[in-house]
Amino acid sequence: MKTKQKSWKIITLAAALATGLTACASPGQEAPQAAPQSGDEKTKLTIALDWYPNAVHSFLYVAEEKGYFADENLDVHIQMPSDTNDPLKLAAAGQVDLAISYQTQVISARAEDIPVVAVAALVRHPLNAIMTRQDSGLDSPEKLAGKVIGYPSIPFNEAIVRTAVKEAGGDDSGLSFVDIGFDIVPALTAKQVDAVVGGYINHEQLILEKHGVAVHAFQPESVGVPDYYELVLVTSDANAEDKKDAIAAFLRATSQAQEYVKAHKEEALDLLLAKQAQEFPLEEDIEQKSLDILIPLMDAGDQPFGHQTLESWQTMIDWMKERELISKPLQAEEIMQNIAY
Q: Which of the residues in the chain have pLDDT under 70?
């Protein structure tokens, strides 16, 4: 699920690429690298998650546990990042074969000439939302004018709020933004801020409501921000060409797994919960509700699972450029590639 991203630090990334990102691996643990197939030898692929394992990753664990990866002659290693900035950096440096990242972060990276490309759209619509307490009276975006907004210091999130206020006819000049990191739930629960952005409808909103804090959630696509892909699957430019067959096999397996998730939600969630029971226990009721939210948002309709459109990418590229979130224009063809499977 979620997608906790921080500001893109190009200097840090460039240094990490230069040093091979050895610091990103756990001490004494080396991530498996992709190997060419020979005979019955399985092709190894590593994928870095965007965050700790949760409902959005159910399709990966189904593919693993049900043997869909094995059926494609793949040996897939799923790893959790030690920092939420790591997955894209690891993919760019070739330290993992695939990573789950964010459409907006991929655009920012590519604008800085980082060699990453998206090969699938996983969550096809925003999960991020501006949230206010229902008891605050802030029930429409223009009422946020002059208010204090808590956010994880991500420029894109600030742009969402400013756009929402202006689109609703409000004045964004008096907005005050406070860096609360990812302490979205406690900040809104304790009324430390008037509103938050950077929390997700399938996580923070569910937790807030579970603990008795009813919220208004203004989703980006309803307040003047283009509809966008929340989560995408990325790889390096080199891997997109050199490992295209393995990535296609990965997409076949995960497409089959996502169909299983849709048809057997309880069983799929049980696999995830069992896998994480010892390492990272999850709240079953939250993950159940999260999966219900996610399944339709991951559906590509009559297109293959993961299908991307040039229009989605170009619209968000242009929107980010207009708001000076990226420094140069880009073409969608530079950033995305649909790999036939």
A: 1-39, 277-278
